[in-house]
Design a protein that fits this description.
CATH superfamily of the domain at 8-84 and 147-222: P-loop containing nucleotide triphosphate hydrolases
Distance between the termini: 11 Å
Structural class: alpha/beta
Shape: globular
Strand content: 15-25%
Number of helices: 7
CATH class of the domain at 8-84 and 147-222: Alpha Beta
Order of helices and strands: EEHEEHEHHHEHEHEEE
Bound molecules: adenosine-5'-triphosphate, magnesium ion
CATH architecture of the domain at 8-84 and 147-222: 3-Layer(aba) Sandwich
Length: 223
């Protein structure tokens, strides 16, 4: 069909809990597309994503959304914060879907996460904060519900060196806590700290820097 863009050709990857994975590749190589397929935000035109016994492609949209909310913490490349709300309210957004009221424990956890990522919890709307602060709010929000799978798209792109190290260290520690951490990045510092590095180019897996890394499971061709 004319005008169709094939963002990913044939990518086959397997991810295991307890590991910190980095996916690197040039701009436009398909990294965000791949991350969104893993998160079941995008449906591949062929292939599928298996998570444990679940085949995400077999779930309808509502169930995919529920699966993502229950299992994934997402840090989007463009943050996707609610600009009119402050940091604390943004970090608490995932709790909207778990109960009607924000429990005090959830609020304390949100405050602790913001403090860990060095963002004042009581400031005005996040739109007025720096991009680096917004990026760390997005990270705190992704971790609120202690997800088993953390999917981060360029999480160090807007922060300074010290905060990049804080974020990289956090991803490393999450993997040590048996989480599955998958991070798309241009940042060599992220790749150096990862347990496994996959490299994609023009929608293809060109290099698996750790050949011992397990292969095959999330397969997809996205157009
Ligand atoms: N919604 C869309 N409509 C049309 N083309 C798209 C769309 N999303 C992605 N693409 C194309 O698919 C390819 C891969 O895009 P993707 O955003 O996954 O790249 P990326 O590796 O994340 O790049 P960057 O490092 O700049 O974030 C690009 O050629 C892009 O133009
Ligand atoms: Mg991208």
């Amino acid at each position: 069909m004319g005008g169709e863009i094939q963002a990913l050709q044939s990518v086959s990857l397997q991810f295991e809990p307890g590991n910190f994975y980095t996916i690197i590749g040039p701009s436009g190589s398909g990294k965000t597309t791949l991350l969104h397929i893993i998160a079941a935000i995008l449906k591949p035109s062929s292939g599928d994503v298996h998570v444990g016994d679940v085949e995400l492609g077999k779930l309808n949209e509502g169930r995919r959304d529920a699966w993502r909310r229950q299992n994934c913490g997402l840090i989007f490349q463009d943050f996707r914060l609610i600009e009119e709300l402050g940091p604390l309210a943004n970090v608490l957004v995932p709790s909207w879907f778990t109960s009607m009221v924000t429990k005090p424990a959830m609020r304390s956890r949100a405050e602790a996460l913001l403090s860990h990522f060095k963002v004042p919890s009581r400031s005005g709307p996040v739109a007025a904060l720096s991009r680096g602060q917004q990026q760390r709010i997005a990270m705190a929000r992704a971790l609120l519900l202690e997800p088993e799978i953390i999917l981060a798209d360029e999480p160090t792109a807007s922060v300074d060196k010290a905060n990049a190290e804080l974020i990289i260290e956090e991803m490393h520690n999450l993997a040590r806590q048996r989480k599955t951490v998958i991070c798309v990045s241009h940042d060599e510092r992220v790749a150096r700290r990862a347990d496994h590095v996959f490299e994609i180019e023009d929608g293809r897996l060109v290099r698996d820097r750790d050949e011992a890394a397990p292969r095959v499971a999330a397969e997809g061709v996205s157009s």
